[in-house]
Amino acid sequence: LDSDASARLMKKVSEGATLLVHSLDSTMIIRLAGEWKIDLKPVNLGPQYNLVRDVNDELLNGISNQETNWLDKMTYTSGKENHKMCDWLFSSTQGKSLLSSESESCWREFFTKGSASEWLRMPVVTYYLYNGPRQSASGMMAFTIGKGKLILTQVPLSENGYAKAKTYWSQLLANLNVSFSKNLFDGEKTAD
Fold first, then answer.
1. Tens-digit pLDDT profile for residues 78-114
2. What are the beta bridge partners of residue 100?
3. 8 Å CB contact between 51 and 43
4. Closest by alpha carbon to 154, among 64, 68, 39, 34?
5. Rounded CA gap, 163 and 159, in Å?
6. Which pTM does this prediction carry?
């Protein structure tokens, strides 16, 4: 996105439009913060598979914690694989955090790092939670820009028909009153 296109988008949002941006890497988070003059910083807490609600917000209506928990190995069903959401989260003093990384569980260690066996669970819980909640950062944030909204989400679009991603995106877009004449997930994938 060039500077002119970014300026046109910013003008539309400040006049009352809503802009939804997803799957930002650290470079794009920094660039967006600079171009839009907002306090936004990238945070690297490692790969993220699970985001939890920070607040009740109309943007999250109909989206349960099941749709934002992609640790599919938690179901103890053979053949299930975890689905990574993102590598980068963000922090801001201006935005309203809607979803963030979990801070009071060890699910990540249990189901992505091989610590799910009964003899490892208690040492893992003690080590990670003994000193209080872990560092957390936002995976979905909303900013008020003039009369409009800038919404950032790190939840990626559905790949290979992943049902939780489809449900999340379908419900989020419905909450934004976006209507479609065909399935959002039909068609060819464009290059990143």
1. 557 788 899 999 999 999 999 999 877 766 666 666 6
2. 52, 138
3. no
4. 68
5. 9
6. 0.84
